[in-house]
Write a structure and sequence with these properties.
Number of strands: 6
Radius of gyration: 35 Å
Order of helices and strands: HHHHHEEEEEE
Largest sheet: 3 strands, antiparallel
Distance between the termini: 107 Å
Number of domains: 3
Strand order of the largest sheet: 1-4-5
Shape: elongated
Oligomer: single chain
Helix content: 55-70%
Structural class: alpha+beta
Length: 185
């Protein structure tokens, strides 16, 4: 093989060698050992940069995957927030019909639809937030009033004005509650 063939087979080798020679130019040591040592250092530096770039790319992929999973996990929030008003109205309708003494197929049908709707919500990880009888938790409850109570100790939810819901670990709507201040004896 001629020298011309070697140059064509390995382009850029002369450039790296020229760069190494230029760096050594100021030191006065242009022995082959010094050039090899400098080139080995450059190779080590480039490998280190490559490893850092690969690690950075992997971290970016993980972050992107986590963000995508979060978006998919909570994608249904807007539609469910709108559906919660429907659930509340169905609850009110069945309570009003029951308190008015109406019993019949229509009331039973509305209760079945309400039960089915809440079942669908639970199937997709929407759950009601427990309230009455539980300690007040500002992370999931919103206090609308405080009242004395003989039946409930201080700091306990005694009445739920509006049911709250949670999706996975995120509060969709807090429970609107009345909190007991304890007994005024």
């Amino acid at each position: 093989m001629t020298q011309d063939t070697n140059e064509k087979a390995t382009p850029g080798n002369d450039e790296a060698l020229d760069a190494a020679m230029e760096q050594l130019g100021g030191s006065g040591d242009d022995s082959p050992e010094a050039v090899v040592e400098l080139l080995e250092q450059q190779v080590a530096d480039l490998r280190d940069r490559e490893l850092k770039a690969q690690a950075e790319l992997e971290n970016f992929r993980k972050r992107l995957l986590r963000d995508t999973e979060q978006q998919l996990k909570y994608a249904a929030i807007p539609i469910v927030r709108d559906m919660l008003d429907v659930v509340d109205n169905l609850h009110r309708a069945t309570e009003a019909a029951t308190s008015a003494g109406e019993a019949g197929g229509l009331v039973d049908g509305v209760k079945m639809v309400l039960h089915q709707l809440t079942g669908v919500l639970e199937k997709h990880h929407f759950r009601q937030i427990p309230a009455v009888g539980h300690p007040f938790d500002p992370n999931v409850h919103q206090a609308i009033a405080q009242q004395p109570s003989r039946d409930h100790s201080a700091g306990t939810v005694m009445l739920e004005a509006s049911v709250g819901y949670i999706l996975h670990d995120r509060v969709i709507r807090p429970s609107m509650v009345v909190v007991s201040t304890g007994s005024n004896s």
